[in-house]
Amino acid sequence: MTLKNKHLLLLPLISLLLSACGGGSDGASNFKPAPEDTANGTKYYRIQYYFDDKGDAFTVSHFELQNRKIVTADSRQPLNQYIVTQQAVYEPSQRYQADIDVHSMSHWTLNLIADLKTDWKFEKVALSGKNIFDTVMPGYRDLRFDTQSPYANARIFLASHGAEKFPQGSTCYRLISTKNNQAYFSFQTDRAETQTFAQALALNQLTANLAQKNWPKLGIEHVTGQWATRLNWSVVISSVTGQEISGLSKVQFNDQVYAANLNSASEWIAKNQIQFEQDSIAYGVYQDNPEQLRSSKLTIANLERGCFIYNQVAADKLSTLNFIR
Questions:
Q1: What is the 8-class DSSP label of residue 165?
Q2: pLDDT for res 22
Q3: Are 113 and 83 in contact, with CB atoms under 8 Å apart?
Q4: Residues of the signal sequence (predicted)?
Q5: With bands split at pLDDT 50, 70 and 90, how would you rate the model's confidence at 144?
Q6: What is the DSSP letter of 166?
Q7: Complete DSSP assignment for 6-45
Q8: Do residues 258 and 193 lie in contact, with contact meaning Cβ atoms separated by under 8 Å?
Q9: Burial (CB count within 10 angstroms: exposed 0-12, middle 13-18, buried 19+), residue 245
């Protein structure tokens, strides 16, 4: 049995929202907001790396602050999925608010829809003199390249620019925690599951029981409930991360069973995710899945050494690498 822990839908959503921009408790007692320029017109940059079996690419997107707010391209766009909280059901035809309040560069709030919000916390990282490749692609120098992709651009990056360093004044921000102000499920109804809800419950309970027996440090639990009178749900979560185990969340909605994502109200903290991944590797959870083992190691490296967004100085240096565009 292979478990994949996924931090909500949030990280993909963050990437989607920021890449589309213009061409609670923080869980950390020593958290100190880092001062940074939030003046109108200030730009920050997101570097993303994609690969498949045919090739790879780096993309750069930026967002510009206006009145300490980021308005994303998804703002006022249709949800195209159900979002269900304990009290409300939002239909696919309803529209995202999808703007971001930037309280400081270390604390943002995503306003998703109505009163549904997510707080993000970042730490500022000084990049002056740090290796560029190991910051943009943490873990790849050690793990090298497997057979999932030709990795042509990544190979060029390592071979031609693997020793280059960021110039003085370069900084970035690393995501350290996120927290929804309430839990919610997101799901689509175009494809119902063939299993009954009772079967989904039984399978998730079995999965949790086996995980508790074999991997106790992972804190795996099966939790069920009913929301908004129309939604029965079954999830397998980790008490270590406070988040769902990917692919196991199921909802019964209008008498049909669907795969779903639980977006937990528990705080996700990067250091707890790192611990979960390290314990999973130590237990041999991924021993029959080398791709997932590699992915877990890269997740650890990215959480420990990667960057979420870069300042202008760092971005200017990255723009000199002509394969990043």
A1: B
A2: 41
A3: yes
A4: 1-20
A5: very high
A6: P
A7: --TTHHHHHHHHHHTS-----S-TT--PPP----TT-EEE
A8: yes
A9: buried
Q: Which DSSP category does 158 fall into?
A: H
Residue 194, pLDDT score: 96
pLDDT at 325: 67
Average pLDDT of span 111-133 = 97
> At 75, which amino acid appears?
S
Contact 154, 137 (CB under 8 A): yes
Distance of CA 248 to the CA centre of its chain: 17
Alpha carbon distance 141, 211 (integer Å): 32
Strand 220-227 relative to strand 184-187, pairing: unpaired
Give buried/exposed letters for 67-78 (b at 16+ CB in 10 A, else e): ebebbbebbeee
Give per-residue pLDDT as tens, 47-82.
999 999 999 999 988 888 999 999 877 788 999 999
Q: How confident is the model at residue 142 (pLDDT cuts 50, 70, 90)?
A: very high
Alpha helices, H only, the chain: 10-19, 132-136, 140-143, 152-161, 197-214, 270-283, 290-305, 312-319
pLDDT category at 21 given cuts 50, 70, 90 is very low
Token couple for 279: 């314990």
The H or E element that residue 117 is part of is strand 116-126
DSSP 148: S
Structure tokens that stand for 215 in this block: 């991997």
What would the two tokens of residue 151 be? 């990795």
Measured in degrees and rounded to the nearest 5, phi and psi for residue 233 equal -145, 155
Say how far apart CA 33 and CA 16 lie, in whole Å. 25
**CB 97, CB 44: distance < 8 Å:** no
